[in-house]
Design brief:
The protein is α+β, with helices and mostly antiparallel strands. Strands 3, 4, 5, 6, 7, 8, 10, 13 and 15 form a 9-stranded mixed β-sheet that branches. Strands 9-14-11-12 form a 4-stranded antiparallel β-sheet, with no helix packed on it. The protein has a two-stranded antiparallel sheet with strand order 1-2.
Length: about 425
């Protein structure tokens, strides 16, 4: 919890309780005895809270961060930074990070802040970007998608390109979600499309702040994912371990009043691929951005309730083009290998066909020999140490030699 605020009355704003109180982590201006009363009071408190928060945000913009990054030790409390406002995550001391409160700023400011955090820390957490009504509409779309039966078990992709469908497999022990891929233009899910367009607009403003380190161009389809509870999760992994072009992972959560103590489902991030980690609660209206490559291994902790998220991956122009070219070269090499194998098979088949045809003609030629002709052949080879040598000198091919000698033996002429 943040430092004491002298303007706060130390009683629950709903029931007047004086024990086990928690402050509103946004404005620090009111206290509650629990999450239920905080949610119950939100409609009344919202305007005052956001006004106070706006004033605090304006003040914080003039301050200099006195610590680098958000990282905390794997068994410690989260680091504090002057440019971030604390928000209540959970009541037990997990390794949680402090999100950036940004709804009072325009999108250009959010982009500048987000790009800066990506460069500095490798990740960024943004809360409150959309209105509650917008979140409700997006969630309604997602639930309709889930209820349609169109979502399939999550897949594990291999290969240079994330679109290598032939190299995708499902392993429930590795990931337990069900997913569907949407472009964002599907008319039956307009609110999901609105969210995707919003994230596209935000990420599209990042390039000037990366100073040539990366150029974001294009994206994947959006992955709508549902972890259905029952301990479903996703073990530690890297989104882009093979340089397939994905540079930024953008995860938007849609889980209202999520209680990580009972529902689980944190995203555990390992910045810098180290043992130290950060737990990020999948709260509704939270956007998580991080580098998609080996700098950010992560996992989804087992979820005990329905957990929804929408993920979009944004491409680095150079790496994506290189991945495409590498894929073309791999495909061409495979095609050349397939052609060579086909040529061998054709040659083998042709050889077998010719041999079969030759056997038929040889058999026909021997069967046409008269008894006198057979007697003549028998006289030439009888007693010779190598009958085949005699027939070879006569110009007979091997298949005819074999059939002729077999026939002579069958008729008792040798």
């Amino acid at each position: 919890m943040a430092a004491s605020n002298p303007e706060v009355t130390d009683v629950c704003a709903v029931c007047g309780a004086k024990s086990n109180l928690k402050r509103c982590s946004r404005c620090q201006g009111v206290m509650y005895c629990g999450r239920e009363h905080q949610s119950q009071h939100w409609k009344q408190h919202k305007k005052i809270c956001r006004a106070k928060l706006a004033a605090r945000t304006d003040e914080s913009d003039t301050q200099t961060a006195d610590e680098k990054g958000h990282r905390s030790q794997s068994r410690g409390q989260p680091s504090s930074t002057a440019d971030l406002l604390e928000r209540e995550f959970d009541e037990r001391p997990l390794n949680l990070i402090k999100p950036c409160q940004t709804w009072t700023k325009d999108l250009d400011d959010v982009a500048a802040h987000s790009a800066g955090k990506l460069r500095q820390d490798g990740f960024c957490v943004l809360d409150g970007l959309l209105d509650d009504d917008e979140i409700a509409r997006i969630l309604e779309d997602v639930r309709r998608v889930d209820g349609s039966g169109a979502m399939k078990s999550g897949e594990l992709a291999g290969g240079r390109a994330s679109s290598d469908d032939k190299e995708k497999v499902t392993k429930p022990t590795v990931r337990g979600d069900r997913i569907i891929w949407l472009q964002g233009s599907e008319p039956e899910y307009p609110n999901i499309g609105t969210l995707i367009n919003f994230i596209d607009t935000l990420v599209g403003k990042f390039n000037p702040y990366f100073e040539g380190e990366t150029v974001i161009k294009g994206r994947t389809k959006a992955q709508v994912a549902c972890y259905p509870g029952n301990g479903a999760g996703y073990i530690r992994h890297v989104d882009n371990p093979g340089k397939d072009g994905r540079r930024i992972t953008a995860l938007f959560y849609l889980n209202k009043q999520w209680d990580v103590q009972t529902q689980g489902g944190n995203l555990r991030l390992f910045p810098g691929d180290k043992d130290q980690y950060l737990d990020i609660t999948p709260l509704a209206n939270r956007l998580l951005l991080f580098w998609s490559d080996r700098r950010n291994p992560h996992e989804v902790q087992p979820a005990n309730d329905m957990r929804y998220a929408i993920t979009v991956w944004y491409y680095d122009a150079v790496e994506r083009e290189q991945a495409r070219m590498d894929k073309v070269h791999e495909d061409m090499a495979k095609i050349r290998g397939d052609i060579a194998l086909l040529e061998l098979e054709v040659a083998k088949a042709e050889k077998e066909r010719v041999a079969s045809e030759l056997d038929k003609k040889s058999k026909s030629a021997v069967e046409k020999l008269s008894d006198e002709e057979l007697q003549a052949f028998a006289c030439m080879v009888r007693g010779h140490p190598d009958p085949s040598a005699v027939l070879t000198e006569m110009g007979l091919i091997t298949s005819i030699q074999e059939l002729l000698l077999a026939t002579l033996k069958d008729k008792g002429l040798l």
